[in-house]
Queue: 3 jobs
Job 1
Amino acid sequence: MLNQTVIVGRLVRDPELYETENGNKVTNITVAVPRTYKNVDGEYDTDFISCTLWKGIAENAVEYCHKGDLLGIKGRLQSRNIEEEETNKTIMELVAEKVTYLSSKKN
């Protein structure tokens, strides 16, 4: 079985570095990825993909990546359950194994 995903999109906001109770560094980013086809109104929709970056990948992203930068992210899809106000939600996220800086935001 294989669980591997590659996306290319623009960073929605500057990443922030956090430290877990065990001392691991982590950041959660959102990448805007435009769809390759138009909707019924003739416009391209955009998907906003949540990504989790750990340890060195997280530290590098916080140092070098900024809102609007074009990134390539390779990783695996992962689901997790969150309990909120007596309801359960399942969240899908991309756990990054490699982040490639492609270009900065256009001026």
Job 2
Amino acid sequence: MNVPGDLKYTKEHEWVRVEGDHAYVGITDFAQGELGDIVYVEIETEGQQIAKDDVFGTVEAVKTVSDLYMPLSGTIVEFNEALNDEPEKVNEDPYGEGWMIKIKIDDTSELEELLDAETYQNAITS
């Protein structure tokens, strides 16, 4: 199971990569493995301010649809348009080309509530 040490994680299996006052968000390798083959990513909240823990979109796999939760309060400034044509990028490269949204962070203190790699790894293996 791939859990990069330089990212932050949520209990709902989203990852966060912070770059200044922005953050990239996607689902973890564990989450994509549990979902199976991803066939569609729906994000209709671009440009909207979303509160931490609120749903920002959905990911559809062959057998299920799962909600995506905001790891931090912020405004969605970009959706990874490549996922429209190639949603399988989430399965193939969840921490790279399979990123889902870029957000402008409202409150950086919320970062302290996210899990580090070791804590997340322990959560998914226990």
Job 3
Amino acid sequence: MEAIAERVVGLVIEAIDINALVSKVDMDALLTKVDIDAIVSRVDVDGLIDRVDVEKIIDRVDVEKIIDRVDVEKIIQRVDIDALVEQTELGTIIAHSTSGVASEVLDVVRAQGVGLDDFVARWMDRILRRKSDDWPPGPVLLVSTVAEGDSLAVAAGAQQ
């Protein structure tokens, strides 16, 4: 009996013009009765994502076109430079480098001053006809300390 019912249903389906039937259906009325949320909740999103070929999508993306659309000036205006400097060691690096440069400049100026002082002293010695043998060997306290240190070193070497 079941076989006969299946055969009858098959004959009816063959006899019906599906295109004519679908053309008479009001799709808008049909869609208002469909619960889209229920359909979407049954979708396996993780399964869909697993099936996506990300490399193929990346190959299709025109990166140059995206870059052309980016407004770099607008991005730069949004950057908080002060906050960036606070979060990095950049301020310290700048302070160290500027103090290092200033220190080097000061050393150069001092060296030039010493050179100029020696130059002036040699000319003054020539003008005043002084000999370099007449110069003191250095500041009294410094020279006496070096002399004592030398005598101590000599004494220590003699004991060994």
